[in-house]
Amino acid sequence: MQNYQDVLAEVLIDAPTLQARIKELGAQISAHYPDGDLLLICILRGGVPFMVDLSRCITAPHKIDFMAVSSYGVGKRESSGFARVTLDLQMDIHGQHVLLVEDIVDSGHTIASVLDMLKTRQPKSLKVCALLDKPERREANVPIDYVGFTIPNKFVFGYGLDLDEYYRNLDFVGVVDLEKYTPPGEA
Ligand code: PRP
């Protein structure tokens, strides 16, 4: 894998800007769930860094759980239009206030499928918090209750978003320079 510095076109959202916005989201969410009774559901894997930082900024008592879905075939980037659960929740969400935490909403198919599935489990409420919203790519009309940043249609990585599985650990969101980046299989 190439060094990220060699394929970074620009830093789209730097670390202090990310953290400041997450603090605001945490305050907003805390105010909306003053009694606690909230369950944050992180959609693996991209949502992990955001979920961790957001959870620390939510002062209302809350629980966390994780689920994984697969919406794309191996090696494909086209949406299949539905998501398959590959790791289900540990917790029963019946009667719970649920907030889904995602790194990015792109076509919207992942969130749409997860919402459809979780609604059948009869939570008390079901909302969505996405760090990044890329509306130009939307195919499914999904409600996003809390948005960190609306971004242009660029290939972004870092802070949970991968570049062929690498660099989810970066503390900023960057744009890939596609002229300089060679995917591992093509090197
Ligand atoms: C990414 C991201 C969202 C989804 C958004 O996940 O984390 O879950 O794609 O795309 P959509 O709005 O077009 O459905 P991905 O399937 O790449 O898995 P990952 O989180 O493990 O990287």
Description of the molecule:
By secondary structure, the chain is an alpha/beta fold. The chain has a domain at about 15-70 and about 80-150: Rossmann fold. It is about 25% helix and about 30% strand. It contains four helices and nine strands. It has helices at about 5, 15-30, 50-55, 110-120, and strands at about 10-15, 40-45, 60-70, 85, 95-105, 125-135, 145-150, 155, 175. The strands form two sheets. Strands 4-3-2-5-6-7 form a six-stranded mixed sheet, sandwiched between helices. Helix 4 links the parallel strand 5 (about 95-105) and strand 6. Helix 2 crosses helix 3 (about 50-55). The radius of gyration is 16 Å and the shape is globular. Mean pLDDT is about 90; it is low at about 75-80. Bound molecules: 1-O-pyrophosphono-5-O-phosphono-alpha-D-ribofuranose.
Care to give the gist of this entry?
The chain has 187 residues and is an alpha/beta fold.
SSE arrangement:
Elements: H1 4-7, E1 8-13, H2 15-32, E2 38-44, H3 48-57, E3 62-70, E4 84-87, E5 97-105, H4 109-119, E6 125-133, E7 146-150, E8 156-157, E9 173-176
The structure holds 1-O-pyrophosphono-5-O-phosphono-alpha-D-ribofuranose.
Query: How helix-rich are the residues, as a percent range?
Result: 10-25%
What's the architecture of the domain at 15-71 and 82-151, going by CATH?
3-Layer(aba) Sandwich
Q: Name the structural class.
A: alpha/beta
Strand content: 25-35%
Radius of gyration: 16 Å
The CATH topology of the domain at 15-71 and 82-151 comes to Rossmann fold
